[in-house]
Amino acid sequence: MADCMQEWPEPVVRVQALADSGLEAIPRCYVKPPCDRPAPEADDASSGASIPVVDLGNGGDDEGGQLAEAVAAACRGWGFFQVVNHGVRPELMRAAREAWHGFFRLPLQEKQKYANSPRTYEGYGSRLGVEKGAILDWGDYYFLVLSPDAAKSPAKYWPANPGICKEVSEEYGREVIKLCERLMRLLSASLGLDETRFQEAFGGADCGAGLRANYYPRCPQPDLTLGLSAHSDPGILTVLLADDHVRGLQVRRRDGHWVTVQPLPDAFIVNVGDQIEILSNSMYKSVEHRVIVNAEEERISLALFYNPRSDVPVAPAPELVTPERPSLYYRPMTFDEYRVYVRKNGPKGKAQLEALKGQSITQNNE
Q1: Which of 14, 237, 317, 330 is the most buried (most CB within 10 A)?
Q2: CA proximity to 117, closest of 226, 30, 4, 217
Q3: Residue 249: strand pairing partners
């Protein structure tokens, strides 16, 4: 990440502070172009569309059978699905969410002690890309690295208050990583590969995980902005613990329409990232998603990003490359190389993945 900016290009304004100030109109830097603004929710509410639900308690010991087929269908049809009976204790899920809710309730001065920078993104943030004059998203966040051990966020990045935050988040992370490892076995089996194939290709036990607590404050003009712009996730898998009561996640269907996800109680929302699309040679595709905000209620979610080991070159699995289906991607690329694009540009649809199909990301941005 040496070529990324060392500091933000403009003074950082906390979105929560803007919302709490009582302003009636959002600043111009948060107003999205008309083509990127959220459509009325009635469009998807009346369609009956919803992402699939996979019950991980239904497979017994047959990981390569019924469950693999269910995951395959969800990945091919949507790239997103909810999982129930996933093995993570509901009380742990609630404790993790409440701990981070406690952080965002703190006075701004206390939170500012953990302000982040483009160098690592660890800590308290309000923007992702470093483009000067960019149109920003209506949300704040806190990001931490949970694994592998060599890359874990040191103590200075963890908030001291709430005092339980670090302990609960680390336990939560360990349990969700176990879920990711199980889903990786199912994804491998669903493509006719050995169930360990995907895990090994991404770095085995040295795969990484990061946790981002997202805070989306109330917004006086929710029709003009987004909590998080449309993007696909750069890693392997994302496991989202959504807000219990407030909908916000929207997924782009294959026909281009946006669908607002209704989270199930005690469920996780899972989506495949760009690295799965690359390794599967586009048999499974990452899917654009975004976050809408509303005028009445704030919203908190926890996203765990499961990523390749940072220095492992990722390319389509040779078993999935044939004369009829040649490799679709330019060259093997490490995750460290890949995410430079996101750090420079912020969320930009699937631009970083599409660039790999014709030329390298580095070349595309010179």
Answers
A1: 237
A2: 4
A3: 291
In contact, 4 and 129? CB cutoff 8 Å: no
68's enclosing H/E stretch is: helix 66-77
What number is the average pLDDT over the span 124-143? 94
Q: Which three-class secondary structure state does DSSP give residue 59?
A: coil
CA 73 to chain CA centroid, Å, is 21
C-beta separation of 352 from 230 below 8 A: no
Q: What pLDDT, on a 0 to 100 scale, did the predictor assign at position 2?
A: 42
Q: Which residue has the tokens 């336990």?
A: 171
The pLDDT score that the predictor gives to residue 218 is 97
Tell which phi-psi region holds residue 79, choosing left (phi > 0), alpha (psi between -120 and 50) or beta. left
Over residues 229-246, mean pLDDT? 94
The two tokens of residue 192 are 């006719």
pLDDT at 215 over 60: yes
CA distance 203 to 336: 13
We find that the CATH architecture of domain 28-356 is Sandwich (2.60)
pLDDT, mean over the chain:
90
Q: Residue 362 has what pLDDT? A: 41
N- to C-terminal Cα separation, the chain:
16
In the chain, where the domains are located:
28-356
